[in-house]
Amino acid sequence: MSELEMMVARLRTMGFLKSEQAEKAMLTIDRAIFIPNEYKSLAYSDNAFPIGYGQTISAPTVVSFMLDKLELKPGMKILEVGTGSGYNAALISHILGVRGKLISIEILPQLYDLAKKNLSKVASLLPNNLTMLCMDGSEGYEKEALYDRIVITAAMPSLEFNSPFVKQLKKDGKIVAPVGNSWSQNLILYDNKTRTSQRVLSVMFVPLVGKGGFKPD
Ligand code: SAM
Q1: 47: domain CATH number?
Q2: Is the pTM of this model over 0.85?
Q3: Taking a C-beta distance cutoff of 8 angstroms, is the pair 70, 176 a contact?
Q4: pLDDT digits 0-9 by tens, 132-177
Q5: Which conformational region is residue 65 in: left (phi greater than 0), alpha (psi within -120 to 50 degrees), or beta?
Q6: If you measure from the C-alpha of residue 1 to the centroid of ligand 1, how many angstroms do you get, rounded to a whole number?
Q7: How many structural domains compose the chain?
Q8: Which of 35, 61, 62, 172 is buried deepest, with most CB atoms within 10 A?
Q9: Among 104, 108, 132, which residue has the most ligand 1 atoms within 8 Å of its CB, making it the best to mutate?
Q10: 208 part of a folded domain
């Protein structure tokens, strides 16, 4: 068994990667490609790692948990805010398949470039369904709305019913997003069908910045 296969097997044993598509995506997209050289030897451990500019790639358990909560299906239209290393975008793109569409937004030009470079290394494994944008995604991306799912990978100050993200969601859409400050955050699952929010996990993400995010001190 390769180290990647062992990582995926561990996640399965822990009860993550409930869908076959998510498991397949994790086995196909090698996390090591998205990990900076100095941490490559630890690529399959359950750790978040710095990717530069004060940002991080999340731990595999957190990534898998978010994928499970999103309940992604091939053909869906998804918005991701916070491309970072591009790892999560690669997994989502793989799950969505040729009929799906993923818009992934990154605010930092340096990380947008890094993600582009990383994603070019797995391009042959991905369907042509990913659009990357370098801009402030803190109020979503109205141009391509409505979305089946919105996933935000940086902590938002709040997620209200009148948020632009909720307005950009299909009637039966869902949002998965960390909400809270640098002391306390919860991963929130918002379901537009029932118009209810659930706290599903205690987490620690870097802050969402920009117009709808946290203001710099
Ligand atoms: N999903 C990423 C991965 O797989 O590597 C990890 C994302 S990292 C935890 C959070 C990212 O959100 C950072 O790259 C950060 O620059 C980005 N970010 C923060 N505020 C943003 C905003 N307003 N719009 C777009 N991206 C933002």
Answers
A1: 3.40.50.150
A2: yes
A3: yes
A4: 999 999 999 999 999 999 999 999 999 998 899 999 999 999 999 9
A5: alpha
A6: 32
A7: 1
A8: 35
A9: 108
A10: no
